[in-house]
Amino acid sequence: MEIKSLQQLSLTPLPWQISAWQQLHARMENGTLPHALLVCGAAGTGKAHFAQAFAALALCRHPEKAHACGHCGSCHQLAAAADPDYHPVTIPEDKTAILVDQIRELSQTLALTSQHNGRKIGLLTPADAMNANAANSLLKTLEEPSAGTLLLLVTARPARLPATIRSRYQAVRIITPAADTAVQWLNDREPRPDWPALLGIAGGGPLLALELAKSAWMQERLRFYQMLVELRTGQRNPLSCAAETSREDLSLVLRLLQIWITDLIILTTTGNTSGPEIINVDAFALLQNALTRINLRGLHAFLSRLNEALALVGTPVNGQLLLEGLFMDWSEGLQTLGAAPLAARGG
Ligand SMILES: [Zn+2]
């Protein structure tokens, strides 16, 4: 799931980004800011927000307390997406990758003289969406950066970038906030009882949790869990469930399964009494229904299979087939999984 860029111009870092911000700001102040930064971190931790706010600061004519002022000419231009020194690059609406022509255009613009403040900024997000030609073209820009150039590459998957690019960028790591920090931040925006669950599904990324809250399918989360219970009781068929579920975002389906199994493991190891410790607190009754005739070994083996499946997301995997296998194992109570090592099962 792609996180939509924030609507307004962001000027300040998010609460869990302050340390990374301060370090970068100090380097800007003492003139040791590199010309290429790789802003990385887990999905939904606000990497693009951070990069954009830092770009605003770098371009601002009158920064206030280490942030862009929000009201100088440059800040106004940036807010109106009309700053001649700021060049965001992302995947075009009708494409699936950042293309070489976009990088060439960026390089040409960055080679021009800055309009004000001496800086010119290129912001690529998600940078791992560059195709091979685009990445090659960017390398040339990196070899001979014009004065005042700052390139910000934003990615949740730095390993997907060519090593030649990674080695030329200094990494800025955006941490995943502690769950209580994240839930408080989310509640400040919109109070909801299911933030802990959504945050769990989002892998801890608060901005991804915000996106999930808007997703229609996510509101059907309890129905999905009901379906899992019905698979176990034989009321539903694994193949039809897989066909139905394969229409949804595969990574989300797998994440839902992952936290469902994690919750079952918690309930099994704590003797079915740890309601408050589980992620799906609102699905406690459903989880209890699913617990019959399932052993811990089977649950752990299934969790390993889910992790393997999650690693396939983004590759040309057949999602429906993948889900069929998982739902069949689940409907059979993970008996075979718990009994035999994974390798012996032929996938
Ligand atoms: Zn300003």
Summarize the structure.
The protein contains 16 helices and 5 strands.
Could you explain the architecture of this structure?
The protein is α/β, with parallel strands linked by helices. The chain folds into 2 domains: 15-175, P-loop containing nucleotide triphosphate hydrolases (Rossmann fold); 215-345, Zinc Finger, Delta Prime, domain 3. Helices cover 49% and strands 8% of the residues. It has 16 helices and 5 strands. A 5-stranded parallel sheet has the order 2-3-4-1-5, sandwiched between helices. The longest helix is centred in the last third of the chain and has 20 residues, at 250-269. The two termini are 26 Å apart. The model is unreliable at 2-7 and 340-347 (pLDDT under 50). Bound molecules: zinc ion. Zinc ion binds next to helix 3.
Helix/strand layout:
Blueprint: H1 18-29, E1 36-41, H2 47-59, H3 73-79, E2 86-89, H4 100-111, E3 120-124, H5 132-143, E4 149-155, H6 163-166, E5 170-174, H7 179-189, H8 195-201, H9 206-214, H10 221-232, H11 238-245, H12 250-269, H13 284-290, H14 296-312, H15 319-331, H16 335-339
Parallel strand pairs: 1-4, 1-5, 2-3, 3-4
Helix pairs in contact: 4-5, 8-9, 10-13, 11-15, 12-14, 14-15
The structure holds zinc ion.
